[in-house]
Amino acid sequence: MGHDIHQQIAARIGALATVRWDELPPTLVETALGRGEGRLAAGGALAVTTGVYTGRSVKDKFIVRDAATDGHVWWDNNQPMAPEHFDVLLADMLASIAERQLHGQHLLAGADAAHQMKVAVVTETAWHALFIRNLLIRPDAPTAEGTDVTILHLPSFSADPARHGTRTGTVIALDMARKLVLIGGTAYAGEIKKSVFSLFNYHAPLTGTMPMHCSANIGPDGDVALFFGLSGTGKTTLSNDPERLLIGDDEHGWTAEGVFNLEGGCYAKTVKLSPTAEPQIHAATQRFGTVLENLNLDDRLVPLYDDISLTENTRAAYPLETLPVVAEGGVGGRPRTVVFLTADAFGVLPPIARLSPEQAVFHFLSGYTAKVAGTERGITEPVATFSACFGAPFMPLHPTVYGRLLEERLTQTGASIYLLNTGWTGGGYGVGKRIDIATTRRLLDAALSGELEQGEMRTEPLFGMQVPLRVEGVTPRALDPRAGWADVAAYDAAAARLQELFANNFRKFEQVAEAAE
């Protein structure tokens, strides 16, 4: 089958519709403005809204269950679609584009040529074409030759649950074997980006590459650092460091040789974006060609970063080269430091701790952070969140597959592993306070420089992690969360509760390991 299916679909699309291929940003912006798809914000960014859906529709995402995927996909975490339903959906979506004008982009996913996918995206709006052009890698000479992945993106198409086997009119359907993606009924652009990532997460382990939902950067002496973390933990903010070159802010692969960015752009959250705390990201939102998603503008067309009336999930999509310091080619060597980020709203975990490889796999499979009041409707106190591999919604295979790859890479490289808590101290949410960004940055710098490797450590009793006793510029008391609580008995109770939550969550992975023996 190979590339043939993609050539066939491209021919069918071309026979049915007019596709304007590989347009540059000025053309796409001009078209989007002319059609009323968005507004030009002060500074030149294109501001758009996504309608009903301002985030991913997790329950409407499906993977075709066929001979290739049946015994491999983590079906407890992924919804199956029958091959015949996918084929009918494809036929109906193609029929719906007859005599229409569409926009197409030939792009690349994977900065390492040996692990690269050639992606063709066809969409009905100019702004979505601009979005995915910003997010994936833009080849010097775009071509349809050798296409590996085809994505047909039609937000105006409504699926029929009875006919297509969907839950609602919204659908994100992935045929892993043929590398086809069909998206309908949602204008939220993140669905396109994450579909590419889901394909990569399925296929990369087959060649021994570890796919990662993480950011990555390079220090002055060439040392590579990885940053894993769920939304709100500081992954994008902390990896954007003027003293280090950014490889990428969200999706990477890790081979025996080193790491590479899957993308060619950034999809940064902009809620409460500060020009002081995050100057590089803030400046990127002011550039021509950047796409601002669900950000309201004032009467001067200036973005309102504190306005969450549409959603808290406001975003900016821009090419990597918009940033002042990026790694050439989107690649780096073997990581020297791996950082797991968490925002512990229970106020229990230390601000930083060193992990053994075994502890690293535990925390990787756990993927812990905590939601607090205001992040989701109905949440009034901290709620523990566990997302395996720090990105369970995008993991088609069982987490233990990725856990084994992580263990192999850590063994090969001898990388130092740290758990960095950007959450609360001196008490849980509502009692304690958020660890200040200056302290977090100082601790991160100490980890990246190797300073923490030389200092004296104590064993933290909760999970057996190693916690530094002293870090220059940080008070010793700040390194010990229990010492910061006015009521140590309350701390002990909160710690016991968190430990139990971890243990209950991890049992499912232990059961899989026992079944495999």
Helix share, percent: 25-40%
Q: Determine the strand fraction and express it as a percent band.
A: 15-25%
Domain unit count: 2
What shape does the CA trace take? globular
Rg calc: 23 Å
In short:
By secondary structure, this protein is an alpha/beta fold. The chain contains 14 helices and 28 strands. The strands form six sheets. Strands 11, 12, 13, 14, 15, 19, 20, 21 and 24 form a nine-stranded mixed beta sheet that branches. The protein has an eight-stranded mixed beta sheet with strand order 1-6-7-8-10-9-4-5, with helices on both faces. It has a five-stranded mixed beta sheet with strand order 2-3-17-18-16.
How would you describe the overall organization of this protein?
This protein is of the alpha/beta class and 517 residues long. It has 14 helices and 28 strands. The chain has 2 domains: 4-35 and 56-207, Phosphoenolpyruvate Carboxykinase, domain 1 (3-Layer(aba) Sandwich); 210-254 and 334-516, Alpha-Beta Complex (Phosphoenolpyruvate Carboxykinase, domain 3), CATH 3.90.228. 29% of the residues lie in helices and 24% in strands. The strands form 6 sheets. Strands 11, 12, 13, 14, 15, 19, 20, 21 and 24 form a 9-stranded mixed β-sheet that branches. Helix 2 (25-35) runs antiparallel to helix 4 and helix 9 (357-366) packs antiparallel against helix 10. It is globular and about 70 Å long. The model is unreliable at 373-379 (pLDDT under 50).
Entry keywords:
single chain, 517 residues, alpha/beta, Phosphoenolpyruvate Carboxykinase, domain 1, Phosphoenolpyruvate Carboxykinase, domain 3, nine-stranded mixed β-sheet, eight-stranded mixed β-sheet
